[in-house]
Amino acid sequence: MLNWLRAPIGRIVAPLARSLVRARVTPDMITVAGTIGATASALIFFTHGRFFTGTLLVWGFVMFDFVDGAVARQGGMTSQFGAVLDSCCDRIADAAVFGSLAWFFARNDQPELFAAALLCLALGSLTSYIRARAEGAGMSANVGIAERTERLIIVLVGTGLTGWPFWVPYAQAIALWLLVAASTVTVGQRFFVVWQQAALRTQQQAGQDVR
Fold first, then answer.
1. Which residues are CB-neighbours of 64 under 8 A, at least 6 positions away?
2. Contact 54, 42 (CB under 8 A)
3. Residues 38 and 30 sit within 8 Å (Cβ to Cβ)
4. Domain for residue 211, yes or no?
5. Looking at residue 38, which CATH number applies to its domain?
6. Helix (H, G, I), strand (E, B), or coil: what is residue 107?
7. Which residues carry out catalysis?
8. What is the pTM of this model?
């Protein structure tokens, strides 16, 4: 949904990407470093309720996801392994964010937010899995109102506004339940798109059999 942001962000990170290419830094190095940083930040800060600091650090490391792609393109280092690594590392970072929040809610007797965080984690994983399975079957499912960028923006904004110096009441609860709803819609959108493509393929094959 926010894919239009990739072009302007790409222009911003282009000078940094050129410098990293000259320094012989590979995209895989950046991917792994960003994942380790985001995961560690979530585990260290979110589990202890230090939401504002954790949000700033997680967001900073998540932005590595734009840098590794720019380095891969400018350095001619794109590869299938890199794409798989990037996708897997995204899942690790996402799991760390929602898992850490769920851990905090469980320890602080907030069952509603604990449930919301777990639902966000499960639905986010399902959203990515549908796309991966569709692409593996020769179809596409790159649709939805809550793709990874949107999910991270919603959860990090809500979480950041819950920590010092903001303390906006119910910001985190609103963000998490909004994300549950948006992720549910996205799962439905992707299933529907895949169903359409599969039905069209079946019709085409039936037509060929008739001829």
1. 30, 31, 33, 34, 37, 38
2. yes
3. no
4. no
5. 1.20.120.1760
6. helix
7. 90
8. 0.89
